[in-house]
Amino acid sequence: MTTTRTLLMLLALGLPLSTQAADIYRYKDAAGNWQYSDQPMPGAQRVGPLVRSTPANGSTDKAAAQTAGSTAAATDKISQRVQQDVAKVRAEHCKKATEAYEQSISTARLYKPGANGEPEYLDADQIDAYRAAAHTEMDKLCGK
């Protein structure tokens, strides 16, 4: 009876030392945005492992330290990749906003599609408001 209790106690204490690992995948969704998941999707790229370690009583033995080091390196790599993806998306948004603003100032007449699909031309005040909004959007997206 004592042996069984001792064995169960040792087993219970050893469980928190287990390490779980899962791969991380990235893929583009239907809108063209990068998504990250621990589930593989068609066309997804494996970007690295996600390692979770829960040592008991804050132990810092050599194996736990190595696991933490590899986890930190993998997290840093993934973090850098996410930052690169965010920077790329921001640059694309900035480029589109800049093009929209430049088009608004280079065109003498601006219009919007009407209810029946025919163009409804803007008057001078509406054009000025559109150009100001396009400039504000460009400044916001380009960080100016």
Number of strands: 5
How many separate structural domains? Answer: 1
Q: What separation lies between the terminal Cα atoms? A: 74 Å
Shape: elongated
Can you summarize the main beta sheet?
Answer: 3 strands, antiparallel
Low-confidence stretches: 15-19
Strands ordered across the widest β-sheet:
2-1-3
User: Order of SSEs, N→C?
Assistant: HEEEHEEH
Q: What Rg do the Cα atoms give?
A: 28 Å
Strand content: 15-25%
If helices are DSSP runs of H or I spanning 4 or more residues, what is the number of helices?
Answer: 3
Find the structural class using helix and strand composition: alpha+beta
Compute the average pLDDT.
76
Give the helix proportion (percent range): 40-55%
